[in-house]
Design goal:
This protein has one domain: Immunoglobulin-like, CATH 2.60.40. It is an alpha+beta fold and about 180 residues long. It has a twelve-stranded antiparallel sheet. Strands 1-2 form a two-stranded antiparallel ribbon. The two termini are about 20 Å apart. It is built from three helices and 14 strands.
């Protein structure tokens, strides 16, 4: 059920993205967090802080402007809520329009103020997506409410290792707004 709900969201979310720099107008924006709503879901999302992402391949640094993640979809960290559900939300990350390395030995991590969580990587319709393991969502969201910074470490199908940085400033007000919209 968890994966089905997430797949449904990814499909709907992907359809709302117009281009790499242009989203369908959000319901509300708080700082860097955008609050969105449709008939089934409410979600808050943020693109990485410009100039803060780090990339490497084969042990060598790759400049941020040399990384091609696709032109159709953004790299985004999101928390997704289902309308009418008690679950506090799903934590989700997409790396843009390229596929992730889903080798069982490849690890993806979400880090919030030094605490690390393993993320599950998958590829859905050519888009690399990773999500928390389900059991950690409540703890992750609580840390995001209390935290200052987050980062996501991911690996592309071509073995580009990326660490994307996000601010948690305004996360709480955005999350509470999304909760109200989804209740």
């Amino acid at each position: 059920m968890y994966k089905l709900a997430l797949y449904t969201f990814v499909t709907l979310f992907s359809a709302t993205l117009v281009s790499a720099a242009e989203f369908v107008k959000p319901e509300k924006v708080y700082g860097r967090w955008a609050v969105n709503v449709d008939e089934n879901f409410c979600w808050i999302s943020q693109i990485p802080i410009v100039g803060e992402s780090k990339h490497e391949r084969g042990g060598k640094s790759v400049p941020d402007n040399a990384v091609k993640r696709g032109e159709e979809y953004e790299t985004v960290l999101s928390v997704v809520l289902e309308k009418g559900k008690e679950k506090p939300g799903y934590v989700y990350f997409t790396g843009g329009a390229y596929e992730f390395n889903t080798n069982e030995h490849t690890k993806f991590f979400l880090e919030i103020d030094g605490k690390q969580f393993t993320m599950k990587a998958s590829n859905l319709d050519g888009i690399g997506a990773s999500f928390s393991m389900g059991k950690d969502d409540t703890e992750i969201i609580e840390l995001m409410i209390a935290g200052a910074d987050a980062s996501v470490s991911s690996v592309s199908k071509r073995n580009l290792i990326s660490v994307d940085k996000f601010t948690l400033k305004d996360f709480t007000v955005s999350f509470r707004h999304a909760q109200k919209l989804c209740s």
